[in-house]
Amino acid sequence: MNHFVVAIGREFGAQGCDIAEKLAEKLGVKLYDRQLVEEAAKKLEMDEHTVQKADEVSAKDIEGLKTTYGVGNFYLSTQVLDAQADIIERVAQNESCIIMGRCADYILKDRDDCLKIYIYAPFDVRTKHIAEKYDMSMFSAKRLVRQMDEKRDTYYKYVTGNRRGEHDGKDAMFDSSIMGVDGTVDMLLEMINKKFG
Known about the structure:
This protein is α/β, with parallel strands linked by helices. It has helices spanning 16-27, 35-44, 48-56, 59-68, 71-94, 104-107, 123-133, 138-160, 176-196, and strands at residues 5-10, 30-32, 97-100, 114-120, 172-175. Helix 2 packs across helix 3 (48-56) and helix 2 packs across helix 5. The protein starts with a strand and ends with a helix. Pfam families: Cytidylate_kin2. InterPro entries: P-loop_NTPase (IPR027417). It comes from Butyribacter intestini.
């Protein structure tokens, strides 16, 4: 198989992480997700906890950091974004892999060897999955899903200028509730083999 990168964006609760893990295992390639935080921490010579906090800041909060916590914290967040973008580009250049989230679809938009995927599911399906996964009430799960959607939407908009769930810039979008994790993985494998095999 030729060199390839799969950039996967996902809605919270749509089982994108489970899909990415199984896909990486079947393809025999590395999955990059939280590892990007570790790499960014090394690159910036900072402790991982500090970088993790900066990585989790939403776009609204990034702007607020300028006035609330001082310019230093704002620049820390933008430094983390820049460091992660550099790492994503380096990883994509050097190895076939799967990259989860962190606007990788946008960062790698000009690469012909990158397949840009978006995983979504209906709100009620995602809420039920989160309630079961984290053993919480449906009320709490709904609130968490809404919060994570808003956070990821504003983060993606801040970094890319685009809306997260739009088809522009994506090669394919999958409703994971239709085929489930294994079925979605199978469809992705077929696409990857056809494009890069």
